[in-house]
TrEMBL record:
It comes from the Bacteria. This is DUF1285 domain-containing protein. InterPro entries: DUF1285_beta_roll_sf, DUF1285_C, DUF1285_N. Residues 17-81, 83-170 form the DUF1285 domain. Pfam families: DUF1285_C, DUF1285_N.
Length: 172
């Protein structure tokens, strides 16, 4: 059984030092991320996953705007809802208990924890769980994953929930 620190280290993608970078704002670039997490350049879908992962690695949200940010440039892009969708999940055993790991549409794994909690937000008129990520980013839980969680959810007086590391995250 691994420790929580080992699991976090294994799942962690290299973080960019966005807070240290103070690049010049270079305006808007015609990149859009639609509500299904698909990336488009000038209305043409970017199909190369490696290219999307590269862009995603320098994506951040400041105030209500999304940017591709490097040490020398900062370019605004359009995001319809959130940039990522949770498409799969699993539980991992740790010394601290079961940890819920979510997999996004770019095949990156994220640990549901106090640092990256599940929060409820409105999407298309329905309350939906979103995984809060670093740098102001979030990933919406797909309908398929939501229904899988609903099948195993526990309930209390507040509603239905799923647990990760002994903390309850409500699904509605």
């Amino acid at each position: 059984m691994q420790s929580l620190a080992d699991l976090e280290a294994a799942l962690q993608t290299p973080n960019k030092p966005f807070d240290q970078w103070q690049p010049q704002n270079c305006g808007q670039v015609p990149i859009t991320i639609d509500a299904q997490g698909r990336w488009f350049y000038a209305s043409s879908e970017i199909k190369r996953e490696a290219m999307v992962k590269l862009f995603a690695s320098v994506l951040c949200k400041e105030a209500d705007s999304y940017f591709l940010k490097t040490p020398v440039e900062k370019m605004a892009i359009t995001v319809i809802d959130v940039p990522f969708i949770i498409v799969d999940w699993r539980f991992e055993e740790t010394e601290q208990g079961l940890a819920l790991c979510c997999v996004d549409n770019l095949q990156r794994a994220w640990l549901v924890s106090a640092k990256q909690p599940l929060l409820l937000r409105e999407f298309e008129g329905v309350s939906v769980p979103y995984l809060q990520l670093a740098h102001g980013l979030a990933a919406r839980v797909s309908r398929n994953v939501y229904y899988q969680w609903a099948e195993i959810a526990c309930s209390d007086e507040q509603g239905y929930y799923i647990e990760s590391l002994a903390k309850r995250y409500y699904l509605a």
